[in-house]
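Quick illustration, no need to memorize.
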Amino acid sequence: MSPVSWILLLAILLILFWAIGAFNRLTRLKNAIANAFGQIDVQLKRRYDLIPNLVEVARKYLAHEAQTLEAVIAARNQAHTAERSAAASPLNASAMGSLAGAEQALGGALGRLFAVAEGYPDLKADQTMRELSEELASTENRVGFARQAYNDHVLAFNDAAAQFPTVLLARLFGFQPMPMLASTTSEVERQPVKVSF
């Protein structure tokens, strides 16, 4: 074999090893995204389990606010359905977008429930309501931390898939950019909801 053939063979082997390493890195980063969504999924399920209990306690005091309570349950059910869809396909951008929209609707419905509950001193004084509210607030914090971890993994993947020369391999094998999960999309929705029991 001539020296040119050896150099060409060495170059081909280097490119092959780089391609294998880059593909494995992109796959590992994509799997990290799915794992990070799994952490969000755990917290969302916990949240969805708390909400019916919260509504049931509030129902005793807010009998004539049935529309508000029904809106919370409907939003919870819609978010739970979107979460199951996203959990089945955590790398699907459409499913993640649907989940984000459903979560926004649920947050708005819960905000209205807490706003209505402010006018009922007996409800605010109810021990079970306070405990459920604290548990819900704690779960919301966990969801926020899990969402941040998810977004960190998405950023690492998107950065790796967009850098040259890996971008060529990413396009060849269909590695698409992943969307970040945002808690809200408008300035009105970003206003804090006052919760106190």
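Residues 3-61 form the longest helix (59 residues).
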